[in-house]
Design brief:
Helices cover 77% and strands 0% of the residues. With 425 residues, it is mainly α. It has one domain: Up-down Bundle (Growth Hormone, Chain: A). Helix 13 packs antiparallel against helix 14. Keywords: Membrane, Transmembrane, Transmembrane helix, Transport.
């Protein structure tokens, strides 16, 4: 990669491979992406509708359009990661997301709401997940699945804690104060840790991926290189697998964002309370958390495209259950199944790109994938909002959404890892 620093020492000495410190910071980044994630923003929507007297479809349109534009600009973040490195980008994006939270705390109308949504989605949902997902694969190859599983803890803690925490903060202190809390937390906690602890690659501190051989072996032979096939973005885009997987990674973003954004309304339509929606989101995270460790070991041993197909089969089952349920117990069952699916997708959607195309140009490649994911999430809320305003429910749109994971499951099975030798043969 072009963004490399001179070989030096780790900022803190650890009795274990420093890559695990990197994993911790990456997990913290995923956690603090929460203010820009739909599971967090969705808790504010009812307050926005009440305070600004907007329709649900209007707020959905603002959110979807802002997400769409954020997605179209996200690929530039991936290129910047390759150029200046994850350390600088993580700190800058953390500061910008803190500013976005403070902006949302003082917004007074539709234009400010739109800009606020845009910044949250670009810097939160997009960049704060893109950067750690390009950082951890630099430090791990053989243990990549396990490392990403540990990193995913941050995402599950975020999705488990933020919905009920936001609900409590909004009810007791108001939605403006809630946004201020997250802005201050980002600036005071995350940004300093990112600046001090993050290093872009193992070679920056005299190590190699996975931490073996021992550090003293590298001192004797500092030119040790890890044998890995690295595709450029241009080369990757000429493979069938790239385009089929690109469609696949957009599907969870599309479906999950649509359901999550309107989950409070969906649950209310089944005669249940708002608190049940927050419980479902938390339950999804709690169930998904241990599943990631199983999947982390699985993808280190089984071809990723098979695990991806299993993930989409789970999506189909979860949506079918959501269509049928009409009680608290039924919605809880949905949350459990959704948790299993979420545990699979958090790992497999992250590991497929470095496993297929290597680490060297991962920022650019993952940047395109993250752009497509954000675009997918942009088109999720609006169809649900429009369908609700037109027909007063969500049943029809949920049936339509089942088609997307069905197609993605087929595409996954048609997308084994491309052969680097065959491409260059």
């Amino acid at each position: 990669m072009s963004a490399q620093s001179q070989t030096g020492h780790a900022p803190v000495k650890t009795p274990f491979y420093y890559g695990w410190v990197i994993v911790f910071i990456a997990g913290l980044s995923v956690f603090f992406s929460g203010p820009g994630q739909t599971y967090s923003v969705s808790i504010f929507i009812e307050s926005y509708i009440a305070d600004f007297d907007y329709t649900r479809s209007f707020v959905s349109a603002l959110y979807s359009t802002a997400t769409l534009i954020a997605g179209l600009t996200l690929f530039m973040v991936g290129r910047l990661v390759d150029r200046v490195g994850q350390r600088m980008m993580m700190a800058v994006v953390g500061i910008l997301l803190a500013i976005a939270c403070l902006w949302n705390s003082v917004m007074v109308g539709a234009i400010m709401m739109f800009v606020g949504f845009f910044m949250l989605r670009l810097f939160g949902q997009g960049s704060m997940t893109l950067i750690p997902n390009t950082l951890v694969p630099q430090w791990f190859i053989g243990k990549r699945g396990r490392a990403l599983s540990v990193m995913a803890i941050g995402g599950f803690l975020s999705s488990a804690l933020l919905p009920p925490l936001n609900t409590w903060l909004i009810n007791d202190f108001g939605w403006r104060t809630t946004w201020m809390v997250w802005g201050v937390a980002l600036a005071v906690i995350f940004v300093p840790l990112a600046i001090f602890l993050v290093r872009n690659q193992p070679k920056d501190i005299g190590e190699i991926p996975d931490g073996t051989p021992k550090h003293h072996d590298l001192q004797q032979n500092p030119n040790v290189e890890v044998n890995e096939e690295n595709w450029t973005l241009k080369e990757a885009m000429k493979t069938r697998a790239f385009w089929l997987i690109l469609f696949c990674v957009s599907v969870p973003a599309l479906v999950n964002t649509g359901v999550t954004f309107h989950l409070v309304s969906i649950v209310q339509g089944k005669g249940l309370s708002d608190e049940i929606a927050a419980i479902v989101l938390t339950l999804m995270a709690v169930i998904g958390f241990p599943v990631t460790f199983i999947v982390g070991y699985l993808v280190d041993r089984v071809s990723v495209h098979y695990v991806l197909a299993i993930t989409f089969a789970g999506h189909i089952i979860a949506l079918f259950i959501l269509l049928q349920v009409s009680s608290t117990k039924g919605v809880i069952v949905y949350g459990i199944i959704w948790g299993f699916v979420n545990g699979f997708e958090r790992i497999v959607l992250s590991i497929v790109w470095p496993n297929y195309f290597g680490r060297e140009h991962l920022g650019s490649i993952k940047g395109i994938a993250q752009t497509i994911m954000v675009l997918g999430s942009a088109f999720g809320p609006l169809p649900f909002g429009l369908y609700f305003d037109w027909f007063g429910g969500y049943e029809g749109i949920l049936w339509i959404m089942i088609l997307f994971p069905l197609i993605a499951m087929i595409f996954s099975l048609l997308s084994p890892k491309p052969s680097y030798q065959a491409y260059h043969g």
